[in-house]
Write a structure and sequence with these properties.
- By secondary structure, the chain is mainly α.
- It is 74% helix and 0% strand.
Length: 298
């Protein structure tokens, strides 16, 4: 029987260097590896170029005054970005408080009921559209439904606009993470008599909490540098303002305005703000990946 099996088994392809098929496949392989390496090298080159430019031009603007002084008036010397830093922190913080519970609950609904209802399919489709929607469109939407009706710009409008950008990120991350939970774990919980809502919240969600936190951090990293929605909602404020119902300074808009100004100190502050946002986003990405990898290893 073993002799018949060996006779019926296909012979391995000749990998001799003289084989034309082997030569063609080897050439294709080398070309593919070369093109992939070239693309990676170009990406890394431009990334390092951007980071080096930020470090060279932005590091000189980093000082104590940048964190304690407000944005300077046109033509004046000195100044800082304290009001813009506080404004960005407040708006991103409130946007996170809005988007996190909505995104997690929507993701749980999609994971539990999304495959069995038409509403779940529509929700998933709309979420995918919002993920790819231009941020300026979301800013115009909030301007039309909120700013236009209340007749003034405000920090609340800015928080609402960037929360609409963060929600679909949290929804899709939660949905995907919950889909990784083994079916046997759910079945064991149901067999013990646990209701469905407890299985979803206390078992499935707890099993993938590191992945969900990663999605939240990535959403925060994305909205931290959004400029277009804030131009139509929060606008800007040269002075410190802790009232979210008034126009509020924020780093992205200040960078946008100062970078195009004719004043040297404004442009220097713009580079410092860009460096601050870049490394904040980089830190959030590193933190999210580190937390998730540690959870997987444990």
């Amino acid at each position: 029987m073993s002799d018949n099996y060996l006779a019926a088994a296909p012979l391995p392809l000749n990998s001799s260097p003289d084989n034309p098929v082997y030569k063609r496949r080897l050439l294709t392989h080398k070309i593919g590896i070369a093109l992939s390496s070239l693309a990676m090298a170009l990406g890394v080159f431009f990334l390092m170029w951007i980071l080096a430019t930020l470090l060279i031009k932005g590091f000189s603007a980093i000082s104590v005054a940048m964190f304690v002084d407000t944005t300077p008036a046109p033509g004046s010397d000195g100044g800082g970005l304290m009001n813009a830093i506080v404004g960005s922190f407040m708006m991103v913080g409130f946007a996170t408080l809005i988007s996190t519970p909505i995104g997690i609950l929507a993701g749980i609904y999609l994971a539990e009921y999304g495959d069995k209802s038409w509403f779940g399919g529509v929700t998933r489709f709309v979420t995918d559209i919002m993920l790819s929607a231009p941020s300026i469109v979301i800013g115009l939407f909030v301007y039309a439904i909120y700013v236009y009706n209340v007749k003034h710009f405000s920090g609340w409008a800015g928080s609402l606009a960037i929360s609409l950008i963060a929600i679909p990120v949290v929804v899709r991350t939660t949905d995907n993470m919950l889909g990784l939970v083994p079916t046997s774990l759910r079945e064991a919980a149901f067999a013990l008599g646990a209701p469905r809502w407890k299985v979803a919240l206390l078992i499935r969600l707890r099993a993938v909490k590191a992945g969900v936190i990663t999605g939240i951090l990535l959403a925060v990293a994305r909205i931290s540098g959004e400029t277009a929605p804030l131009l139509f909602t929060a606008l800007n404020n040269q002075f410190y303002n802790g009232n979210m119902n008034k126009p509020m300074a924020n780093l992205p808009v200040v960078i946008y305005q100062f970078a195009m100004s004719p004043y040297d100190n404004w442009r220097e502050l713009a580079w410092g703000g860009a460096l601050l946002i870049t490394f904040s986003v980089l830190g959030l990405n590193i933190l999210s990946r580190t937390m998730f990898n540690q959870k997987v290893q444990n």
